Amino acid sequence: MNHLSSKLIIASAASLMALAAHAQSVQPGPYIGGSVGTTKFHGDNVGGFDTDTTDTGGKIYGGYQFTPNFSLEGGWIGLGKYSSSASELKLNNGVFLDAVGTFPVAQDFSLLGRVGVYNGKAERTVNGVNDSERGTDVKYGAGVQYDLSKNTAIRGEWERYRVKALDIKDNTDMFSVGVNYRF
Questions:
Q1: What kind and span of H or E run contains 107?
Q2: What is the pTM of this model?
């Protein structure tokens, strides 16, 4: 057996052991969680509105872990408010549904990937004139999770929400830290 083959076998065995350890620690079942972080809007000028502005955002969610590596997650999110001297844009409360993939990289430590849909309301005020509309579009993200115990985990995540309402077709990123509780 050559040197490359033995390295491949060792790497494969280590990956299988990590998956087995993760499978023992994360059992199928429901969970809830919440996170808070910063949001950043990236887009075109909207009625004098300066782009790439930041605000505070957060989400609460619930999910079901079907396997150690796959769950569905849905919840509520607030993406923040952005303003300039001529206008204000609020990316109000929205709801989301995601497929979440979990890949263990060490004991109690996993990488997360997610893709889903977001339905949210955008409100815009330009020179005293108000306008609002709901829109649905894709969202995706990535993160890390550390299991503090059998039931509790902390997450750090980046998520990108596509905003498609009020003739706005731009992105809002959210960087957040949160806590999960598994039942």
A1: none
A2: 0.77
